[in-house]
Amino acid sequence: MYKMSVKDEVQKLVSEYEQGIWYDYSDIHEHSKVVTERMRGISKKIPMFISIGRGGWLASRLIATNFERMGLETVSFSVISKYINSNSSREQAVLAQSLDNESKLEIKRKLKTKKYDLWIVDAPFVTGGTMTMVKKYIQDLFNTVPKTVALHVVEYVEIVSAPWRKAPTYSPDVYAEKIRSNTVSWYVQYPWEWSNYKAYCVTCEVYKLGLGKDALANKLKTISNEDRQI
Question: Per-residue pLDDT tens for 113-163?
Fold first, then answer.
């Protein structure tokens, strides 16, 4: 299997820099706290998280930690989604891994107590395809409307490079930050999506300073000469 070198990944960071919204771990931690507070404002019931893999795994973990630090109980489950017919008008989100039977029974038992709320968790909410698919799956399975939460929402009119991806007609019940744009030509970037953390941190630093692609390339020169991954 091909393993991207440090130099290749640095070049990829530079090439995608102007098409990205870059968040570092400090952003993610702060936004998870915002989300936790807003969730508590909506419901005082015990949250049962259905995290959408892979994007929602870390988000739900951080949110759960925030609850637990307040001395509050949480319960966590997970599903995995994927897209079929990607990059075409037939693109569709489907489940790659659903809830197992034991998890289904546990969720049903807890819902009967009326002490729990179901929350579907993802990190970015862009087209809403994945969230909508999982929400319907959970709603049909448990005959209840789950609440939805995302760290970040991208609000747009169209995606020029993929016109079949329509803007969603709703936003999650809870989110930390909304990014607005008429068109979407960039992607939400998270630190766990890159193997060279040092280079990623430099990219976030340059992004927050509002500097351009050339400045990033200059700052990454030293890292690009390294012959090992960090």
Answer: 999 999 999 999 988 899 999 999 999 999 999 999 999 998 887 777 777
What does the domain layout of the chain look like in residue ranges? Answer: 1-23+192-230, 25-189
As a whole number of Å, the CA-based R_g of the chain is 19
Distance from C-alpha of 191 to C-alpha of 101, rounded to nearest angstrom? 33
pTM: 0.89
Q: DSSP for the chain, please give it.
A: -----HHHHHHHHHHHGGGEEE--HHHHHHHHHHHHHHHHHH--SEEEEEEEETHHHHHHHHHHHHHHHTT---EEEEEEEEEESTTSTT-EEEEEE---HHHHHHHHHHHHTT-EEEEEEEEEESS-HHHHHHHHHHHHHHTS--EEEEEEEEE-SB-TT-TTSPPPS---SEEEEEEE-SB---EEE-GGG-S-HHHHHHHHHHHHHT--HHHHHHHTHHHHT-SS--
The Cα–Cα gap between 46 and 155 comes to 30
Q: Which CATH code is given to the segment(s) 25-189?
A: 3.40.50.2020
- Residues 155-211 pLDDT 10s: 887 777 777 777 788 899 999 999 887 666 567 899 998 989 999 999 999 999 999
- CB count in 10 Å sphere of residue 37: 13
